[in-house]
Design brief:
Number of strands: 14
Distance between the termini: 15 Å
Radius of gyration: 21 Å
Structural class: alpha/beta
Number of helices: 15
Strand content: 15-25%
Length: about 400
């Protein structure tokens, strides 16, 4: 069975074609810079690699191009659109409505639309991808997997803000994000550790960053909240900030609310601290003595450590911490900075193992360490395929 995974962003589409239940990746790729005359298409199979710059002015043009490549007589991997049995869609926000994977119908689409106000940068594009896929693959079942679903298990003590109760009734609460990634890597860790009862901290570090406290496979707290903007220091997002700063920016410095939102989401974080958006550039600059970059890396690791301490407290101990996503998987420096001086918690890093590159799960703690430190490559597309496959075959 072929399951096509589609992840529509604001100006991009990531995709994978996965054969289930074998979990084999038939092809994968992405389209970047949608809306421009110089969009970039990437497409890869075991035998072929295509990179092409071309005008792709809309998501519809992008998905049609992906379909044409999949069906291409020379490079393609299917002969007609009906060979796609399921299209699995990443949907960022499921609100209180969606606690599990859902087969998409008119009612589900309407509910996703009703959540636009909670995720205005994500859900509209996710819904657009669904409606376009329905046109291009009319005989395939469309399935939605929600980033927030994994965090429905967070208890009220962590989920509610200290606001009058009517705000909770009006959907103001902690939702949590990156749930597909946290679920995937935590299940890998539990399988590896062979523990019936487990206390795990999952650390997802990419352009967006988040941490989850996971007890016995369930999320019980998460660093992001109402929106994917607070918590850790991110690529261009500030993470945690005193809300009084917002009033100061507006009332004293004359910023509009729109300008404040742009500042905190697109101009802050590591970019705001250093002027660089790519962590590799920041690490290179830090190695060359750039004090701004050195401090930014220290702040980044410091914030992560604070959450490790907090989550160790609510979990009443830790069996393992997981580093995942682009930075978590590839930055040995960040992993080392985070784990330094945590010996009292039983976290001790093996420097040689930490500097080993791996595309599979890697244990990077010292042999005698009480807490396992795991680097686990995330695979959100595979997790979406697994959940979609289970839903259809229940």
């Amino acid at each position: 069975m072929n399951i096509l995974i589609i992840n529509c962003g604001s100006s991009s589409i990531k995709y994978q074609l996965i054969s289930m239940p074998s979990e084999g990746v038939v092809c994968e790729g992405l389209i970047e810079r949608i809306g421009s005359e110089s969009a970039l298409l990437k497409y890869r199979t075991d035998t072929d690699l295509l990179e092409e710059t071309l005008p792709i002015l809309s998501h519809k043009m992008g998905l049609l191009k992906i379909a044409r490549v999949l069906l291409d007589p020379l490079l393609g991997v299917i002969t007609n659109a009906d060979e796609i049995t399921i299209v699995g869609h990443r949907v960022v926000h499921g609100g209180k409505t969606f606690s599990d994977t859902s087969l998409i119908d008119a009612s589900v689409k309407e509910k996703i639309k009703n959540l636009f106000s909670l995720a205005p940068l994500h859900n509209p594009h996710n819904l657009e991808g669904i409606e376009l896929a329905e046109e291009i693959f009319p005989h395939a079942k469309q399935v939605a997997v929600f980033d927030t679903a994994f965090h429905h298990s967070i208890p009220d003590v962590a989920k509610k803000y200290a606001l009058p109760k009517e705000f909770f009734e009006n959907r103001v609460q902690v939702y949590g994000f990156h749930g597909t990634s946290h679920k995937y890597v935590s299940e890998k860790a539990i399988e590896y550790l062979q523990l019936k009862s487990s206390k795990i901290i999952s650390i997802h570090l990419g352009n967006g960053c988040s941490m989850t406290a996971i007890k016995d496979g369930k999320s019980i707290d998460h660093s992001m909240g109402f929106a994917p903007s607070n918590g850790l220091i991110m690529g261009s997002r500030s993470g945690d900030i005193d809300h009084a700063v917002i009033f100061y920016l507006v009332e004293t410095l004359g910023y509009t609310l729109e300008e404040v939102n742009t500042l905190l989401i697109k101009k802050s974080g590591m970019l705001g601290l250093t002027g660089f958006s790519d962590l590799r550039d920041i690490q290179t600059e830090a190695a060359n003595g750039n004090q701004d970059c050195i401090l930014a890396l220290q702040m980044n690791a410091y914030r992560i450590k604070k959450y490790i301490g907090a989550y160790a407290a609510i979990l009443n101990g830790i069996d393992a911490i997981i580093f995942t996503a682009g930075i978590g998987e590839n930055s040995a420096l960040i992993r080392e900075m985070v784990c330094t001086d945590l010996e009292y918690m039983g976290i001790t890093l093996d420097v040689e193992k930490n500097n080993t590159r791996s595309k599979t799960l890697l244990e990077i703690n010292k042999k005698e360490a009480k807490v396992k430190v795991l680097m686990i490559p995330t695979n959100e597309e595979l997790e979406i395929a697994k959940q979609a496959y289970r839903l259809i075959h229940l």
